[in-house]
Specification:
Distance between the termini: 86 Å
Number of domains: 2
Helix content: 40-55%
Structural class: alpha+beta
CATH topology of the largest domain: Alpha-Beta Plaits
Strand content: 15-25%
CATH class of the largest domain: Alpha Beta
Radius of gyration: 27 Å
Number of strands: 8
């Protein structure tokens, strides 16, 4: 009887040791990850980052075990440092934080494209968050502050894309949402159609 008990104690001790070993390995990799973040500084508290494609938000705290990110819905997300160090990180606050927003609008095939592009440019140029991102050479060569091009000939619409720069990723997002609204309203005023798919339904009656 005693032998059985001692064997089971030894077995559970072995399992316990293995569990402790695995836990400490995980803890150690998080601590090493934390030190790596602190010394190499891929991001710092206050930076706006994207971790893989899962998490986007502002870094609130970096501890030895995990990094805390506040996402756009104001939720706190704790990510183990070992995961952070193996993830792809887009840091919108690293170096030059200016960000380009793509503003895509579809117009109908009978639209005067140059006219629609002019209207789009006027609306974008009015936005207070717009940043002139041109180099001195580009300014001298009269490259427009907002470049707008035809990027797609779709089934029911021609897509116009504007490249509009802002100082930060957050500003670029706010500016894009504002402009989608103001360009749509201005197109309505100018009689420029933003098409949507039409469906003809054939109903057979016996």
């Amino acid at each position: 009887g005693m032998e059985k008990i001692s064997n089971s104690i030894l077995a559970s001790a072995g399992i316990l040791a293995m569990a402790v070993g695995l836990a400490s390995q995980e803890a150690l990799s998080n601590i090493v990850g934390g030190l790596f973040i602190i010394f190499t500084r891929p991001f710092k508290v206050g930076d706006f980052i994207r971790v893989d494609d899962d998490v986007v938000g502002t870094v609130i705290e970096i501890t030895l075990r995990h990094t805390i990110i506040r996402n756009v819905e104001n939720r706190m997300i704790l990510i183990p440092n070992s995961k952070i160090n193996s993830a792809t990180i887009i840091n919108s606050s690293y170096g030059d934080s200016s960000t380009c927003a793509f503003i895509d609008i579809g117009v109908s095939y009978d639209t005067n494209l140059d006219g629609a592009i002019d209207v789009m440019r006027q609306e974008i140029m009015k936005h207070p968050l717009l940043l002139d991102h041109r180099t001195e050479e580009e300014k001298k060569a009269d490259v427009p502050e907002v470049v707008i091009r035809v990027v797609n000939l779709g089934d029911s619409a021609i897509t116009l894309r504007a490249w509009a720069w802002a100082a930060t990723a957050v500003n670029a997002t706010v500016m894009k949402y504002d402009l989608l609204k103001s360009i749509k309203e201005r197109f309505d005023k100018e009689g420029i159609e933003i098409p949507y798919p039409y469906y003809n339904q054939i109903v057979k009656t016996n």
